Amino acid sequence: MLISFSFGLSLLLPILLKILRDWSKIYYMSFVLNIKLPS
Questions:
Q1: Is the pTM here over 0.90, yes or no?
Q2: By residue range, what is the domain housing residue 26?
Q3: Which residues of the chain carry a pLDDT beneath 70?
Q4: pLDDT of amino acid 19
Q5: How many domains does the chain divide into?
Q6: DSSP character string of 1-39
Q7: How far apart are CA 21 and CA 3, in angstroms?
Q8: Domain of life, per the record (predicted)?
Q9: CA-CA distances (angstroms) from residue 20 to 1, 10, 13?
């Protein structure tokens, strides 16, 4: 059980990291654009 859980986690971790990195990039870009554009 624990072995299959850690195996699934090792498979899911790069996908989660990629999603997190894409979201942080989108959030950062929107933050920069909100600062540059007059609200």
A1: no
A2: 1-39
A3: 1, 37-39
A4: 96
A5: 1
A6: -HHHHHHHHHHHHHHHHHHHHHHHHHHHHHHHHHHHS--
A7: 27
A8: Bacteria
A9: 27, 16, 10
